[in-house]
Structures are given as structure tokens and as C-alpha cells.
Amino acid sequence: MGVIKNTIKKLSGKRLGKIEKIWVFDASSSLSCSPIADEISKDHFGIIFGTQDGKIYLLNEDAKIEWFYSIKEKVDEIQQMFLDEETAKGIYSSPTFADINNDGKKEILFGSDMGIFYALNSSGKLLWKFKTEGEIRSSPIFFNNMIIFGSNDKRLYALNTKGKLVWKFNANSGIESDPSFIKGNKSQIIFGCNDGMIYSLNSKGKLNWQFKTKGKITAKPIIGDIYGKKKNYIVVGSADNKLYVLNEKGKLEWSYETEGRICSQACLVDINNDGKLEIIFGSCDDNVYCLSSSGSKIWSYETDFWIVASPIVVDIDNDGRLEVVAGSYDGSVYVLDTEGSFLLDYMPGISGITQQPGHYEDIITRQPGNYIGKKIWEYKTEGMIIGSTFINGKKAKQIIVGIKNGKIDNLSYNKE
Amino acid sequence: MAKKSEKNEKMERIKLYIDGFDQQMEGGIPKGHVTLICGTAGTMKSSLAFNVLYNEALNGKTCLYVSLEQSEKSLLEHVENMGYDLSKINLVTISDISKLNSDISSIKSSKVGSVIISDLGSIRKQVRGTKIGPSGDWLNVIKNIIKKLKEKTECDLFVLDSLSALYVLSSFDDPRTKLFYIFEFLRDMGLTTFLISEMPLNKSKYSEYEVEDYLADGIILIQLTERFRKVVREVSVVKMRSTNCNTDVFTLEYRNKKFYATQGGKPPIV
Asked: Do A87 and B135 touch (CB under 8 A)?
């Protein structure tokens, strides 16, 4: 019976298999940042995330807690009155794995809403901490032997591997966007600010250029050679609903306007093997968008609520084709076809004899339809999805999904 | 007079203690509701809110009045001038947040109802020079006072005077979201809450961000109206959820230590 069913599915062009849950982990506190997965040491994958009650968990691939670190900062009775005890210790910056001391193991770097930046070793022991004057909601990067992150005290900090300040850059507003970098002779550190400004600094913290958008920037700028001409471009979304593409000198190439804030990092990938990178991102207008490198929409897929988690592009079912995995605030993880599907806006065979709306000229010149996002699978979780990450594990390809209610779901493709 | 529905008859209500007005709204405001008291300067918003707390304290309740602008001394002088006998209630002032626990024990040991006045102006002077940290917020001070009082006493009513002052003290970058969580917090605490909202002189809106109007369960409007060189105060219910109320405009008067609503919105006969 199963064979017949599969044959019918194959003939109808439907993808076989399904997405199913491997395990779920409950952190017993709201999740406040996207989980991150990485290979901590050889063949040793770890999943790390922070919670609103000030804990960092490291899980292994089987959902076992390897360790957790609990933020303990002393405050007096008066200071305590100024804090929201449920969220004061919240960790809103996704931790970063980086081997900062060249011991072959990756350290864990993150900041908290108490304004403290922490470096833990791979066993979860505190190496050092660094105090800023604002909440730290920007995830750090490790670049040129420096740890670089932003704070809501309006400064971008660069620390050495011992936690000492190398330089700091004063912006005009708080910094919640994660920085990115362009490597090369003229290295650049690029980040966005709460007032909508995008800055580019050199590796010594001096301003190269700045570009103003009209909304808060929480998304991490992503760098890529989108035209395939060996030149880097910066792609970043803003709360003014637009996705911006800038060249290395900070000049606008193009922008694309959605109907909602763009809160998370876009994903750059060549989905059609044309040597150019397509741009896939989510918006608070509930849609996942796929744009061409020139900024025209290839397809969009509408979910039932905002998309604040960055989409992932991966071949989840090992069929040689890429899929887009996007989590939505509506609680579902959507696996979409990267190419979308073409939808005719008339009924073939009937169009010639039925009245078509619009002007005659429009009817003969316009496209006979448009591409829309094509859902392959959907998996319903228990709450709003705030972030997701991917592990190309030993056993299977795994999608790790962070849910606002404190659950971490591990999803995988099952061909049965 | 507004008729009570069968379902609403069972609902516990808090009187506004305005003679002739409570009867127009099924006896008062549903317990646990968040109500805006809106008006321009000089409309007796604060006095009306204090009037509710004072009368509820006479009935043995514990009530909190958070004043963000007017000092405790000025507020008490004002209400004593109006004729309120403060010796009949347990009056507690919080001007040192580090002594909150001892203030709470005096409330617990009192045999009469309490009005707790928290004067944030004095607290600001007390904490001057204290580093409150990046996530420190004056809104949290108010929330933590409420939480502590709610945990350890039977605090039932809360007045915040005023929302406009709160907007200056705390950052409202995303007012819609922040106000949503404030209203949710107050409802979760089970407090019957009065938020005093200062209207602009042109009366163009009830509240600063206007979202408060939608979030609140009720809006009581007090206005100053000029009639033949005389200025009269008028009170009306703009909205009141779960209440069958008369939305006519009433003249608001304070005489013989009591508020009265009269005339049913009709202009005086010349």
C-alpha cells in the first residue's frame, strides 16, 4: 500500500517523507535568543542558547545537558528594586563559539541584559567578564584576534582574548545588531544601530562610512558576492520594512520594501546555479521572501505571523536540491522549495473564450502568472519560533528550533 | 438609571463614591479593571482617585497611591483641606524603598484599612548617585512595590498619578508593546487600577499614545466647561467594559466632603 502511495506521490511531483521531531528539551524559562550549534571540538557538536532567567545551556546532539552557566551578579536592595526580576538577567544575544586561546576547543562568548560580557571555556567555566553600561543584545564576532560586540550604551567594543579593551567606537544610539566583517587588505567591521544607522569601521575602530535607514536595525548585516563579480556587498534589513544592499563603500545598490519590519539576518545562496546569490529573508509582514541579486522578487511565501528567525537554506532530504527552512511566530517550521512554483492566473483552455479583467494591452503583455513560495513540509511546534540553527550531524541533518516558551525542538527529515 | 444584567449583578464592583454617578454604572467599576481617569489640568482627577482609595480604606481595604510628580506632603495637605479625616485610616508613606519591608509590617498590623502613598520624587532624591544599572527602570520600581505589597498584604486598589509623568521617567521607544505589558501586569496582579491621564488643553485625545484608550477597560472623562462666565466640572463615562452604563455628561461637584454628579448633562436653565 505504501509503495503505491509513494508512487502516486512521486508521479504527482510531491516530495516524499516528512519532518519529525527527534527530541525536545525544556529549559523551564522563556528562551530569549536563537540557539546556535557548532562543532566545539572534533566530531563534538554542541547546541547553545540563553534564557530569560540568565542561564546558558550547552546540550549535546542527544539533548543531554553538558553544562549550564548561571549568571550571578550581586546587586543591593535598592538596585534590585529597579530591575524586573524575571528578565533582568536575560541573555538576548546568541552566544558565539570561537577558539580564542588556540587550545583546539571553542570558547563561548555572550553578553547579558545586566551589561556584562562573559567568556566561558568549553567546559562552561568563567574565563573573564567585561562590564559595559548598557544591555548587551548583540552577538559577538571573533575577528583579527579581537572580540567585537555592541552594547545599548551606544558603543561598539573590541576586546582582546584576555577580556581587555582594545578600542571602542561611540555611535549615536544603542547597538543591538550583531556586527559582521569583510576580510582583506581593507578589512571592515559593519553593524547597525537602533537609530537606523549602518556603520563601517576599519579594524582599528575608525569610521569608514555610514548609511542611514529609517528604522532600528537588529538584523546582522550579511556579506556576500551577490553579483558573482568578486566584490562584496552588504545585505541588511531594517525596521523601516526595507532590505538594503550596499556596496563596500556604503553606497546603496538597491532596496526592497516589504510590509513589515525585517528583524533578522538574510541568507545568501545561489539557488539556480547562475553564479549570483539570491537573497532569502523573513519579514514581520508574515512572509518569507526570495529575491534575485538585482532585487526583484522571485517568490514569497505567507505564513500566519511574523518571521523573526533567520531562514536556513539546506538540502534537508538529501535529494540534491536545496530547501528553505523558516520558523514563524505562528509556531510552524516551514520547509519551502527554493525555486517556488509558477502559478497561472487564468484557467488554461478557458482563457480564450472567457472575459479577462483589465485592458487588452495588459492582457497580452503581462506575465500569465507569477511565482509563489511552495511549501513542501510544515511542522507545528508549541509556540513562537524565535530562531533556528542547523547541524550536519553524524546521524542525520538536524534543524534545531528555539521556541519562545523555553522549548528546543530537534527536527529531522524522515523519508518514510 | 442603568439596568443591571443578570450576569453583571454577580460582578463585584468598586464605587467611585460620586453620589448619583455610581448608580449610572451598575454600582461602580468592575473589580480588577484598569480605568483611565482623563482630564485637563484642574479637573480634580487626583482628588477623585484619592476619594476612591480613602473610602475603600474606610471599608478596611489596602490601597496604593503612586505619585510621580506631586510630593506626598503637598498631596496630603490638599486632601486635608478638602476635609478628609486621615486619622480614620492607616496612612503609610513610602519614601525610602530600602525600608519597604518595615512599611509592609505596619500595614499588616493595622486594624483599619490603609492608604499607602509612594512619592517617587522623594525616592528619586534617596537614590541619587546610586548606579541603577543598564536594565534599571523606574517602571520596575513601581512594579516591584506593587508585587511586594501584593505578596505580603491584601492590596486591592492602585492609583498611578500620572501616566504622563511615567512617560518622562521611563523609556517608551515602543509604547504599544510596553503599554500592553503594563496593562497585562496590572490585570495579572488583580488590582483595580486607576491611571490618571493628563489630556491636552484642546482635548484632542484621552491619552498620550492613544493606545491606552484601547487597552483600558474603562475611561472616565472629567472636563471643565465654561457656561456664561462660570466654569463647571463635568464627568462622563466614555467606556466601561462589562457595564451597562449611562454615558450622559453629569455636572461634578464637591461639597460637604463629598462628590456629587447632577443634572444629567442638560445645560442650566437661564
From this structure: yes
